[in-house]
Amino acid sequence: MARRALELVPDQGLLGIGTGRAAFAFVRALAERVREGLRVRCVPTSTATEALAVQLGVPLATLAELGELDLDVDGADEVSPALDLVKGRGGALLREKIVASAARRLVILAQPEKQVPALGAHGILPVEVLPFGCSFCARRITALGLRPRLRLGQAEPYVTDNGNYVLDCAVEPIADPAALQRQLEAIPGVLGTGLFLGMAETVFLEDEHGEVTTLRRPAAAPG
Questions:
Q1: Residue 48 burial (C-beta neighbours within 10 Å; 0-12, 13-18, 19+)
Q2: I need a surface site. Which of 10, 102, 128, 219 has the fewest CB within 10 A?
Q3: Residue 85's beta-bridge partner residues?
Q4: pLDDT band at residue 154, thresholds of 50, 70 and 90?
Q5: How far apart are CA 187 and CA 136, in angstroms?
Q6: pTM for the complete prediction?
Q7: In what order do the strands lie in the sheet with 147-150?
């Protein structure tokens, strides 16, 4: 599926590159094309992605330098029938959302088991919060009916590349993701949620046999 995403990358393209196993596979495939002469400049969504890109010789730039991007390639934890997403298990949700919002097209690489009938089906929604307001945010989120738990690292709170905490919120399948998004974003101290609604244009699903299925948002033009 990384190869399928590469077919969408234009020469001299400005790309966002995501975080996680699927995104890292894309970075490795992209590096091969760069060595063959493909010219790109990429904005990584995490220090882990940046380190891998540097190691493999993929040209990088900042979002401030590039502005609007042609394409963003990333993974997802859940994909709904409408191609709405839950992301953030890798801890880069806020940067991923910023980069995805700066791109003309968001392409998602995932396995078929990431498909769900409704967002929240896998039971976890990550929310990035300011450390100062973590306990306050947790109380407000609990009042919404979610069950937040502070993500831990090495026996300490997990800290994102932005210096923030992540609350992994236990959820049931979400009846109205857009309404929940608005409620969460209205809480002072909440910096970003793992709900990526109306953003993905194309999803490539690759099964264990290497067969790739392409899903497109109904309004999207064929790539």
A1: middle
A2: 219
A3: 79, 196
A4: confident
A5: 9
A6: 0.94
A7: 147-150, 165-170, 124-129, 190-193
Q: Supply the pLDDT for residue 221.
A: 46
In this structure, is the dihedral angle defined by the CA atoms of residues 108, 113, 115 and 120, taken in order, positive or negative?
negative
Catalytic residues, by residue number, are 96
Q: Which candidate, 111, 108, 45, 101, places its Cα nearest to that of 82?
A: 108
Judge contact between 129 and 191, C-beta under 8 A: yes
| Model pLDDT, residue 219 | 62
Can you tell me the distance from the alpha carbon of 72 to that of 57, in angstroms, rounded to the nearest whole number?
18
pLDDT band at residue 82 using 50, 70 and 90 as cut-offs: very high
Instruction: Write the pLDDT tens digit of every residue in 132-143.
Output: 999 999 999 999
Sketch out the chain's domains with CATH numbers: 2-114+197-216 (3.40.50.1360), 124-193 (3.30.70.260)
CA distance linking residue 214 with residue 120, whole number of Å: 22
> 40-44 and 13-17 as β-strands: parallel, antiparallel, unpaired?
parallel
